[in-house]
Write a structure and sequence with these properties.
The complex is a heterodimer. Chain A is α/β, with parallel strands linked by helices. Chain A contains three helices and nine strands. The two termini of chain A are 18 Å apart. Chain B starts with a strand and ends with a strand. The chains are: A alpha/beta, B alpha+beta. At the A-B interface, β4, α2 and β5 of A face β4, β5 and β6 of B.
Chain lengths: 152, 92
């Protein structure tokens, strides 16, 4: 399970929309399955079908996480025209088994859909995502929200 | 040249779980060769069959991406810190 704040969610959606029509990417620092910091980073490939986090920005973000005692709890990218599910390329290049892989689909621009997965040894399993609203504990169980996390 | 090499989680199976190790080399190429002698198999995750740096592996010398320092020919000095990070990459 991964928890993130509404603000984190809004940052990710805005970053994906800024990058459109190319894929956008970000790293999520946190602790114990809870996101504390979003690093919206450049896609060095500037492509609608491919992303590589710009390597120096990746190092800077990871070094800062180390300095703050944060773990890389999530790796985010957008799919501009396909569903929020790991592609074959996503699975082949997944090198961080301890991070959740978050994918935001912008296939329906009015209803972005965010889902999270673990990708380990080529196996994909969906992971629950929870959004925290400021000042409130995480709701449980979560109801589908229009335009929200799972878009169902 | 004795250089500290920071090892990413995914490669620590080669280093007995060590996060950072010491290896020798005047260039990044020599360093990776020495690393592979000390930790057999680790270079296979970093280099292609032709001996080039794998496209989805980032190697940094003192925080600079080696692709801007001559790639595997990048020179090393005593006390340099080399970091290895798998690229964060994918696609739809």
């Amino acid at each position: 399970m991964l928890e993130l704040d509404d603000d984190h969610y809004a940052t990710l959606v805005a970053h994906a929309r800024d990058g459109y029509p190319n894929e956008a990417c970000a790293l999520l620092g946190g602790r114990d399955g809870s996101v504390e910091r979003v690093y919206a980073l450049p896609n060095a490939e500037a492509s609608p079908t491919f992303y590589v986090v710009e390597p120096k920005a990746q190092l800077r973000a990871m070094t800062e996480m180390d300095d703050l005692g944060l773990d890389l709890v999530g790796i985010f990218h957008s799919h501009v025209a396909t569903e929020a599910y790991p592609s074959r390329t996503d699975v082949e290049l997944a090198a961080y088994p301890d991070a959740a892989y978050l994918i935001l689909s912008l296939a329906d621009q009015d209803a972005p859909m965010l889902r999270a997965f673990r990708i380990r040894d080529g196996q994909v399993t969906e992971e629950e995502l929870r959004r925290r609203t400021a000042g409130q504990p995480a709701p449980a169980p979560r109801e589908p929200v229009p335009g929200g996390l799972d878009g169902r | 040249m004795a250089v500290e090499v920071r090892i990413p989680t995914i490669l620590r199976k080669h280093t007995g779980g060590e996060k950072a190790v010491t290896a020798d080399g005047d260039t990044v190429r020599d360093l990776l060769g020495d690393l592979d002698r000390r930790y057999p198999g680790i270079a296979g995750s970093l280099l292609t069959g032709d001996g080039a740096l794998h496209r989805f592996v980032n190697v940094y010398v003192n925080d600079e991406d080696v692709r801007f320092l001559g790639a595997l020919d990048a020179k090393l000095n005593d006390g340099d810190v080399v970091a290895i990070l798998p690229a964060v990459a994918g696609g739809s």
